[in-house]
Amino acid sequence: MQHVVSSRTSARVMVRSHVVAVALAVVALAVVFASPASAAVPRQATASEVSTEKNAKLGTILVAGNTVYTQKGKACTGACLKTWTPVVLPSGVTTATAGSGVDAAKLGTKTTASGTTQITYGGKPLFWCTKDKAPGDVKGAGADKFGKWSAVVLAKASGGGSTSTTNAGTGGAAF
User: Fold this and answer.
1) pLDDT attached to residue 24
2) Helix (H) and strand (E) counts for the chain?
3) What is the DSSP letter of 165?
4) Where do the H-state alpha helices sit in the chain?
5) What's the N-to-C CA distance of the chain in angstroms?
6) Which distant-in-sequence residues (6+ apart) come within 8 Å of 83 by Cβ?
7) Taking phi first (over 0 means left), then psi (-120 to 50 degrees means alpha), and beta for anything else, what does residue 98 get?
8) Contacts of 71 (CB under 8 A, 6+ apart)
9) Segments of the chain with pLDDT less than 50
10) Are the CB atoms for 67 and 138 separated by under 8 Å?
11) FRET partner for 108 with CA separation of 20 to 30 A, picked from 4, 25, 63, 147?
12) In the prediction, which pLDDT does 157 show?
């Protein structure tokens, strides 16, 4: 009789262990799938080089890892900074490096309210958009409640695939 009770107890312990393991796995999956998509891709925190990238729609645009934008409108603070991340230099770095195709004379910096050093181009502060997931994405171009956002276009794409530096068109800020 004692052997039967021990077997039942062992079986119960085993079942409970499996139930706990399955429950933990379900909770872990729920956390992963309940998180917003933007949480899966870490935000870029700093950049030290600004370079160019070809975009089929806009032409040659500025990137610092991902596409960079300028803002026309009120200053980006508070809730704005959840969508628009300032392009800041790493701690201890004082100037941005101009990559291929970038006019080094137009690169500059400004100190943000939080004390970080934000990269500017042509005197305008640069931002990343959290909607962009890869270099060359321009999902942030347009207007939102924080202002009008433009990718920095150095050479506009023309119909024939060549570029021109005369006008940035409607998709970006001309420099």
Assistant:
1) 35
2) 3, 14
3) S
4) 2-34, 37-40, 80-83
5) 88
6) 129, 130, 131, 140, 144, 146
7) beta
8) 84, 124, 125, 127, 146, 147, 148, 149
9) 5, 13, 15, 18-41, 160-171
10) yes
11) 147
12) 86
Residue 123 identity (one-letter amino acid): G
Q: Which residue has 């990137």 as its token pair?
A: 63
- From CA 33, how far away is CA 104, in angstroms rounded? 43
CA atoms within 13 A on the CB side of 35: 11
Q: pTM value? A: 0.68
Contact 88, 116 (CB under 8 A): yes
Strand partners, 50: 98
Rounded Cα–Cα distance for residues 151 and 76 (Å): 16
Tell me what percent of the residues of the chain surpass a pLDDT of 70. Answer: 66
Under DSSP, the state recorded for 1 is: -
* Per-residue confidence (pLDDT) for residue 6, from 0 to 100: 52
Give residue 174's pLDDT. Answer: 53
Residue with structure tokens 């500059």? 108
The residues near 61 (Cβ < 8 Å, ≥ 6 apart) are 52, 53, 54, 55, 67, 136, 138, 151, 152, 153, 154, 172
SS3 32: helix
Q: For residue 52, what are its two tokens?
A: 């160019």
